[in-house]
Design brief:
Blueprint: H1 16-34, H2 42-56, H3 70-82, H4 87-95, H5 98-101, H6 106-112, H7 115-128, H8 137-153, H9 155-170, H10 177-197, H11 201-215, H12 217-229, H13 231-251, E1 256-262, H14 265-274, E2 286-292, H15 299-313, E3 315-316, E4 322-323, E5 336-341, E6 347-354, H16 355-363, H17 365-370, H18 378-393, H19 400-412, E7 415-419, E8 425-429, H20 434-441, H21 443-447, E9 449-454, E10 457-459, E11 471-475, H22 485-488, H23 492-523, H24 530-540, H25 545-553, E12 565-568, E13 571-574, H26 577-598, E14 603-605, E15 610-612, E16 614-616, E17 628-632, E18 638-642, H27 648-654, E19 659-660, E20 672-681, H28 686-697, E21 701-710, E22 713-722, H29 725-736, E23 741-746
Parallel strand pairs: 2-6, 16-18
Antiparallel strand pairs: 1-2, 3-5, 4-5, 5-6, 7-8, 9-10, 9-11, 12-13, 14-15, 17-18, 17-19, 20-22, 20-23, 21-22
Helix pairs in contact: 1-3, 2-4, 3-4, 3-9, 4-7, 6-7, 7-9, 8-9, 8-18, 9-10, 9-11, 10-11, 10-27, 11-12, 12-14, 13-15, 19-23, 20-23, 23-25
The protein binds manganese (II) ion.
Manganese (II) ion binds near residues 97 and 164.
């Protein structure tokens, strides 16, 4: 098992001489790994970059205490060794933090190197601002957009950025807890999906493992421990499994490598969570990989030969065969995957690839450049992906925050392959509809689409495509996109196409509404001043002037009500203002009451031990003892979320500036509602036993209990009030000790999710 054990950061204590040696050693290692790519004249350039960066950073140290230059050196090594980039990228990686953090300017870089290098550094500098946690949502979304735009322009920017981020994640140990949470969340939110989309599986996987390690240390440790304890048994199992395959492969004269590897910790965790099972119940913890040394013209044939050797020995699950050789994934991944039944009824996933495919799987996009001369169709697929990105992002109407959301969904979904009437293949995410297909071809085609012929049969816009479908788009010049389309569209490109259209149409309608309103105000001897517009937005409860004008135009608000307004000078004044004030008071006190009733009261938070009113997030229902953070909401004050809340990554990454450090006070007077789900064997006395624990032994307040029994097995949910996590743990332990109960888990939310 090759878990990525990280070096523990200790206080860095070295003499100046030792430091110099260490830095030089790192630099020489970088040179060695670049060796076969170094052309004449490269070496002095690289040396120059190294010396320039070392000089610029010479007075800075990292949080761990080590000289700063070790960071750019490490980033350059990751870029070269793990992503497969070349000399230019190594130079850029060495200089990546100089413009941001030191006196060096982009002009300096252009002068000392060239425009290509300074453009990449510029891209990297812009991206680094994303971590500026003080900026607001729109600025952060704008920065995500910049990331994606630079990706579309020169993929090296994002590849070096990924190397930078990976090194930061590897050295996160020395950061404080908040930084750890924020950086981890941002990594899960945007960088890991990007690495995935670019085919950098190893890097994506390590990022996710590290993020899990810092966001949910207990779970990470538990799985790591589990893997350690079962290592011996798993190794034996794998060796037995591999043995007959090895013999036959040798017999048939294959040049190959075969080995088993444990799945990443985060993917084991995903399985535990999605299937609601414990570590012991996750069966396919390992996968077997066979890497063939095969000439290009025999690759496909050889892989299928190996497939047949495997299935001669083990029964395959026909539903789990994946042929990414005939049709590679959109990010270029090629391999044959099958899942077969091993000894003791365990499913084992087997991946078959050639050495070339393996390099693509590990180095993703960068490896494509290397094989560019090979002339595969991969290149064009990536190009079209990048082309799409550019097209959408450069449209000034695109709502960035929305787009990022949709784009992220695109990143992870599985793909289907469909064909145009001429037989050209298009790759779309699974679940894409006929209308998504139309937008994929061209935005104009999408907005005019009225239906499609799927394999020559007429189908509606919302028809969900399957792999192999041939799609012919039918259009009409009278067609216009509608709000309903958004219900069934799934690709980011189509959604933003429709949204842009709707926004443009709304803007036009709003312009008419603005005219109507202006005339109405003139008749009242008032004008469309900023003050008055604001007053009316408040009165009609519209969030923006655009929404106000639009509502006027479509008659959603009644402007004859304006006749009841008084006008002082030019200012509109709503007569019944006092009445509003009164009701506001009323609702205030009502809100107060309901909060008290829920038992959410004052607790000491933050560094100054201020008393702040807060509410507990419904999505994850934290209780004292949980690792939590506070989130400043627009209307409801501080909301407390669990650090492992399903929404945490999104909140921390997008709204970092609104996150407040929180901790629990030692106040045990308040009870918190929480829930557990349990399964067990049906037993007439079970409810009695459970209620005995709740009200007898532990004296907890129970809100509800529901048990459902089927075929001798029951599933139940219990909602109780506890004082803190300790009490919840005790409760779970007591339940677990009951005979017949075999699983207890905490609910994320009261509706049982
Ligand atoms: Mn950096």
């Amino acid at each position: 098992m090759d878990t990525k054990q990280l070096p523990n950061i200790r206080i860095f204590e070295k003499t100046e001489e030792e430091e110099k040696k260490l830095i030089l050693r790192e630099y020489r290692a970088l040179l060695r790994s670049l060796k076969q790519n170094l052309k004449r004249g490269d070496k002095p350039l690289l040396r120059h970059a190294f010396e320039l960066a070392a000089e610029a950073h010479k007075n800075t140290r990292r949080k761990s205490g080590e000289p700063y230059i070790l960071h750019p050196l490490a980033v350059a090594r990751i870029a070269v060794e793990e992503i497969g980039l070349g000399v230019t990228s190594a130079i850029c990686a060495l200089l990546h933090d100089t413009v941001e953090d030191t006196e060096l300017t982009l002009d300096d870089i252009t002068r000392e190197f060239n425009v290509k290098v300074s453009k990449i550094i510029d891209g990297l500098t812009k991206i680094s601002n994303v971590i500026d946690l003080k900026s607001d949502t729109t600025i952060q979304a704008e920065n995500f957009r910049k990331i994606l735009l630079t990706l579309a322009e020169d993929p090296r920017v994002i590849l070096i950025k990924l190397a930078d981020r990976l090194h930061n994640m590897r050295t996160l140990e020395s950061m404080n807890r908040e930084k750890q949470l924020k950086i981890s969340s941002e990594t899960t939110y945007i960088y890991a999906p990007l690495a995935h989309r670019l085919g950098l599986y190893e890097i994506k996987s390590e990022m996710e493992d590290l993020a899990l390690k810092y966001t949910q240390p207990e779970i990470y440790a538990e799985i790591q421990q589990g893997l350690k304890e079962t290592k011996r048994e798993r190794t034996r199992y794998i060796n037995d499994f591999i043995k007959p395959l090895k013999e036959e492969l040798q017999l048939q004269d294959f040049n190959f490598e075969i080995y088993g590897r444990p799945k990443a910790i985060h993917s084991i965790w995903n399985k535990m969570r999605n299937k609601q099972v414990t570590f012991d119940e996750v069966y396919d913890i390992f996968a077997i990989r066979i890497i063939l040394d095969s000439p290009p013209e025999r690759e496909k044939e050889d892989c299928w030969k190996v497939y047949s050797i495997i299935t001669n020995n083990y029964h395959p699950n026909p539903e789990r065969l994946r042929d990414w050789i005939s049709v590679p994934k959109g990010n270029g991944y090629e391999a044959l995957h099958t899942t077969v039944m091993g000894r003791n009824g365990r499913w084992v996933e087997v991946q078959i690839r050639t050495a070339r495919m393996n390099e693509i799987a590990e180095k993703g996009l960068a490896a494509h450049w290397k094989y560019k001369e090979g002339g595969t169709s991969q290149e064009s697929k990536l190009d079209s992906f990048l082309g799409h990105l550019r097209e959408v992002l450069t449209n000034p109407n695109t709502d960035t925050i929305d787009f990022i959301q949709d784009f992220k969904l695109d990143l992870f979904t599985e793909e289907i392959y469909v064909y145009t009437p001429k037989g050209d293949m298009r790759v779309l995410p699974k679940g894409a509809t006929a209308l998504d297909f139309a937008f994929d071809i061209h935005t104009q085609l999408g907005t005019r689409c009225i239906g499609a012929k799927i394999n020559h049969r007429l189908a509606p816009l919302s028809y969900v495509l399957g792999s192999g479908d041939q799609v012919e788009v039918i259009t009409s010049s009278k067609q216009q996109p509608s709000e309903e389309w958004l219900q069934f569209l799934i690709t980011a490109k189509a959604k933003s196409g429709v949204k842009n259209f709707l926004k443009e149409r709304k803007r036009k309608t709003a312009a008419e509404g603005r005219d109507i309103l202006r005339k109405k105000l003139e008749s009242l001897k008032a004008t469309l001043s900023q003050y008055n517009v604001k007053e009316l937005m408040q009165y009609y409860k519209k969030p923006s002037p655009l929404d106000l004008y639009y509502a006027v135009a479509v008659g959603n608000v009644d402007i004859s009500e304006l006749d009841n307004f008084s006008v002082y000078g030019d200012k509109l004044n709503h007569l019944s203002k006092e009445v509003i004030a009164d009701t506001r008071n009323l609702s205030d006190s009502e809100e107060h009451k309901s909060k008290q009733a829920k038992g959410a009261e004052l607790v000491i938070f933050g560094e100054q031990s201020d008393k702040i009113l807060y509410t507990l997030a419904q999505c994850c229902q934290p209780i004292p003892g949980d690792d939590v953070f506070g989130f400043v909401t627009a209307g409801e004050g501080l909301k407390i979320h669990r650090a492992d809340c399903p929404n945490a990554a999104r909140l921390l990454a997008n709204f970092g500036h609104r996150v407040v450090k929180t901790k629990w006070a030692k106040n045990k007077e308040i009870s918190f509602l929480t829930g557990v789900r349990l399964t067990g064997l049906d037993d007439v006395g079970v409810i009695q036993k459970i209620t005995n624990i709740i009200s007898g032994d532990l004296k907890l307040n129970m809100r509800s209990i529901s048990l459902e029994s089927k075929d001798g097995v029951f599933n139940g949910t219990i909602m109780v009030y506890v004082r803190d996590r300790e009490e919840l743990n005790l409760f779970c332990a007591r339940l677990g000790a009951l005979e017949g109960i075999n699983k207890i888990e905490r609910l994320d939310s009261p509706d049982g999710q």
